[in-house]
Every structure is written in C-alpha cells, then in structure tokens.
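pinning this so it doesn't scroll away 📌
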Amino acid sequence: MTEKDLRKLKRGDLLEILVEQGRRIEALQKELEAAREDLKNREINISETGSVAEAALKMSGVFDDAQDAAKMYLENIRQRAAEQERISAALEEESRRKAEQLLISTAKKCRAMEEATAQKCLNMIEESKKAAARAAGPPRS
C-alpha cells in the first residue's frame, strides 16, 4: 500500500492494519529469537566439538605418555632380567668352582685316609707276624 492509499482508509481499517502488523512483528520476533537460540546452540556445539577435538588430542597425548611409560617399564624389566641372569651365571660359576675344590679336597683326604689305613694294616700284619714268631719260640735247628 502506498501512502495515498493509507490516507484514504478509515480509522478502524488503520487500526486493523496496525494490529495485524503488531501480530506479524511478534511472530517475526519469535522467529528471530528461535533463530538466535538455534545459532547459540550451534555455536555451543561448535565450541564443544572444538573442546572434544582438543580433549581427544590431549587424551592422545596421555595415551602417548602411557605408551612411553610402558616401554620404559618393559625396558627396565628386560635390563633387570639380564642383570639377574648375569648374577645367576656368576653364582653358578662360583658354586661350580667351590664344588670342584670340595671334590679335590675330599679326594685328597680320602687318599690320605686310605694310605693311613693301609699303613696301619701293614703295621698290624707285621706285629701279628712278630707276635706269632715269638709265640712259636726260637727257631729249630
């Protein structure tokens, strides 16, 4: 409507037009508010998505750190196992040497005891021959 057409209208008609425009303004304001709310929700979603992405990256960093810690732990375990094997081998070698020394020492003691026993036996045989000879008396001619 042009301004000329509006001037021709009666007050009642003008009031109806104003009321109708008021309704349209209210409806448009409601639409605008809904659009603003939707925009706000989208902004929140976008910022949350950014936060989720950042959190994922941070979590990835946490997982990387955990992986590094696990690698260090396993390497430490391997080093300790190697050290234990080295110590065990050294103890085994020392035990073997001590066992060989004990065997040699025991063999020497056994030989000494055998020799002493053999000598005692020879001495006893010799003494028993002498005792038998004395008991038989002087030799007969």
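📌 and the second one:
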Amino acid sequence: MAFSRHSGQGTLLKYLPYFAVIILLAVTAWYLTRPAPLLVQLAKVDRGVVEATVNNTRAGTVKACRRAKLSLRQAGRYRICG
C-alpha cells in the first residue's frame, strides 16, 4: 500500500526557497535605493545674551486661495434636532 502526501503542503514546501529568495531580493533592492538620510547640524544650547531681535513689519491679512460657499435651508437660525 502506498501513502500519498497532501499535495497542498508539498507544493508550498517546494516553492518556499524561491519565495524566500524573491523577498530577500526585494528587501535588498529597497535598502539600496532608499533616499539618503538628511544631514543636520547640531548645536549645544546654552544660556547667553540676546544679541538681536526681529520685528514683524509685514503685518496684514491672509487671503484664502479657494472659498466654500455654504447656505442653509432657512435664513437666520439653524436648529439641530435630536
């Protein structure tokens, strides 16, 4: 009498090394093509004398690029029912 293996499990084990290689290649490609980290300059914070101040001379209004027009069914009051 011959014993047969479950075909689903055998197929998965058969292709598992290929999937592992594909995943390894994808991770390696991502790692090698990622953007370089930003270079920053660090400074130590100390107490000291204020050498200069800045004044806001550009006071004014801010205008929106786009506007939304809203209207209610009835003018004057809006009542929330509930």
